[in-house]
Amino acid sequence: MTSSMRIGVISDTHMPRRWKRLPEVIFTLFEGVDLVVHAGDVGELWVLDELSRIAPVVAVHGNDETQAAQKALPFLQTVVIAGRRIVITHGNLLNWELEMARRREDNWATKLNDVVEAATPHGAEIAIFGHLHIPLWANYRGLWILNPGAIASGGYFHRQALQTVALLTLTPGQEPQAQHFNLAAPDQPFQPRSDWEAGFDSFWNECCTPIFTPEVMAQIPWMRETLLPLILDTPVEDVVLNIMHQGWAGERPLIDVSDVVQALRQYPDTPPAVFEVLRSSGVFGRYV
């Protein structure tokens, strides 16, 4: 009698910083699986505790993790299931300059080659990875590659408009099979795109959409260089994150400059230095 192994695959939960809790539909979709794999950017480790209510969990850390997850989880993990050797890794590169260069490329071949080069030295037949926030399933250069997609936003300024997970089925003597599910329409499998010639940005723009108005989005370089260093890892960050969570959940229209400034003004402990920086901006200064 041939028995199959079913694996629930999830990635990029970023909890609770960018998404507050695991959507309940995941527990329904993963019901009865033999194993759960988390492909990194977990967030706090309680995410894995919650997933372990379904089945045993194997996980790796990503590039945007809590310190606890970074210490507790490996960068790459090799497992063997139903005779198939599987490499699990988040998909980011340890060389930061090369990683940043990859992010600027609208070239699928380069990104997928990195996955192949991470997995093939370990004799893998299947590679499971995350990081891209885009669902994928393909046989590429003789390697089955599976990206479940993402639950949470990959950054501060965009929303994960397409939230997906995947089910991987391994049956002896048969090719591996994978299905994706869109959490907004979980009743039937979701078919990921595979037209690589369209370029990475085309896929990204379908999966991730801005939560800010174009006026704010145009200020991203200035905010990263000047404003965010004053806010990150301080109580003021929570004020801004509260607005962002509403945007990430699709609970409010696009966030405008005035929304950000008003929230900072209503918080009594916003340091004066933050307002000084805002006044230096020709855009934000109009609302201070």
Protein model, in words:
The protein is α/β, with parallel strands linked by helices and 288 residues long. It has two domains: 5-210, 4-Layer Sandwich (Purple Acid Phosphatase, chain A, domain 2); 214-287, no CATH class. The chain has helices spanning 25-29, 46-51, 67-72, 96-103, 108-119, 200-207, 214-217, 220-231, 235-248, 257-266, 272-279; strands at 5-10, 35-38, 57-59, 76-81, 84-89, 126-128, 135-140, 143-148, 158-160, 164-170, 177-182, 208-210. It has a five-stranded mixed β-sheet. Strand 10 (164-170) and strand 11 (177-182) form a beta hairpin. Helix 8 runs antiparallel to helix 11 (272-279). The mean pLDDT is 95.
CATH topology of the largest domain: Purple Acid Phosphatase, chain A, domain 2
**Rg, Cα atoms, Å:** 20 Å
Our estimate of the beta-strand percent is: 15-25%
The largest sheet, given as strand count, sense and whether it forms a barrel, is: 5 strands, mixed
Q: Spans of 5+ residues with little confidence (pLDDT < 50)?
A: none
Order of helices and strands: EHEHEHEEHHEEEEEEHEHHHHH
General shape: elongated
Structural class: alpha/beta
The CATH homology group name of the largest domain: Metallo-dependent phosphatases
What percentage of residues falls in helices of 4 or more residues?
A: 25-40%
